[in-house]
Specification:
Organism: Zwartia hollandica
Structural class: alpha+beta
Oligomer: single chain
CATH superfamily of the largest domain: K homology (KH) domain
CATH architecture of the largest domain: 2-Layer Sandwich
CATH class of the largest domain: Alpha Beta
Pfam family, one: OsmC
Number of helices: 3
Largest sheet: 4 strands, mixed
CATH topology of the largest domain: GMP Synthetase, Chain A, domain 3
Protein name: OsmC family protein
Distance between the termini: 39 Å
Number of domains: 2
Length: 148
Amino acid sequence: MEVNIDWGGPQGMLFVAKTGTGHIAAMDGAPEGGGHNLAPRPMELLLVGTGGCTAYDVVLILKRGRHAITGCSVKLQAERAEVDPKVFTKIHFVFTVTGDNLPRAAVERAIALSHEKYCSASAMLAHTAAITWSAEIVQSGAAAQPAA
């Protein structure tokens, strides 16, 4: 895996990343750090990647289990250390999984498997952050089942 990152120049803190698969992502800093707030912060993108990794796993595990999943979203809330390096110290994932007759046990198992076995990003972050999660299941055409 390879990523190339180029600085946008001396007028700010904009960086453009190009992935080995040919995709582009921009990153910028806060105005107080010399940035212009034109793109997500690098640490935000780290959370984006982690959330994407776990959501991908959850959908794949449920589809392979032949569950009728029709939607999946995850919201991450994170806290960082106050001193450098300002690593993540707590990350909470809130999954909302939608489908037809989705068993809570299957959804929770998929989330647990992602965090415990499959998601490389959350496995790395677990070395510095306490990772927790909750799940909301929305049955298609029915009201949500709140987390137990």
